[in-house]
Automatic annotation (TrEMBL), chain A:
One Pfam family hit: DUF6510
Protein name (database record): Uncharacterized protein
InterPro entries hit by this protein: DUF6510
Record lineage: Bacteria, Bacillati, Actinomycetota, Actinomycetes, Kitasatosporales
Organism this protein belongs to: Streptomyces wuyuanensis
UniProtKB/TrEMBL annotation, chain B:
Domain called Oxidoreductase molybdopterin-binding: residue spans: 35-179
InterPro entries (alphabetical): OxRdtase_Mopterin-bd_dom, OxRdtase_Mopterin-bd_sf
Species the sequence originates in: Streptomyces wuyuanensis
Region entry Disordered, spans: 1-21
Name used for this protein in its record: DMSO/TMAO reductase YedYZ, molybdopterin-dependent catalytic subunit
Signal peptide: none
Amino acid sequence: MGDTPLHRDGNWLAGPLSEILAVEPTRAWWRCPTCGMAGPLAQLHVYGPEPGLTARCPGCTRVALRLVKEADHVWLTMGGATGAFRFRTA
Amino acid sequence: MGTFSPGFHGRARGLADKLPPGQYPTESFPVLSAGPTPRVPTETWTFTVTTENGDSRGWTWDEMMALPQEDTVHDIHCVTRWSKFDTPWRGVPVDAFLEDVETAADYAVAVSHGGYTTNLPLEDLLDGKAWVVHTYDGFPLSPEHGGPARLLVPHLYFWKSAKWVRELRLTLEDEPGFWESVGYHNYGDPWREQRTWDD
Ligand SMILES: [Zn+2]
């Protein structure tokens, strides 16, 4: 039999991601892996807007999301980790 | 009496020479933050240098204050486009912390209370180009501006001058820090306008 691919390319994310990014983000629900606090997006503490937006858990200050807007792009991390995604917006 | 005095010309030329591209001068000292302001008492403050092998050397506040101090005046340039001229600081050159450190590292990550990080080539911290500062304009550095002590690397955009610095981690590879990992430039030279990843 042919080789079974161990991974698929990033295009396989496009469908699921476009669904996630197309919905109303303020209705998102978020849960902190450090302190367990959970709630709607509005409860996050957001610092910025410059040099970027940093959203933190109101319970323990863990980074929940980081977003940097450039003229033609948006950089996004979910959580505080490195390995951001850069989305083209223009 | 002419419309333009020599003094006016002198200042105007001075400004053009002092202002990197895309920046505007400000008298104020804006505070930008990515999180809550840490309150770090000097009684428990420490500063650590960690090498690529995991060896570390630490200083307490009193030990840091016992090192030779320097007064130093610099123009600072924030990537959000403000520049502030002739800012007066007092602190310890980073050279003093690295004097007896054995390392083959080419890079450093400044690590702060609150989790902030920023990466620099190690050589940009040496030879009198960077300080750990604790005094601004004659007063103890306020927590909003990174007190009790912050890094000062005035020849790079000001996000490299990590507030609330607590550690320098020496690394063999360049490891993008907090802002560098979401699109900001890895080096950040204001004179070459290295703001973002593509610049
Ligand atoms: Zn939390």
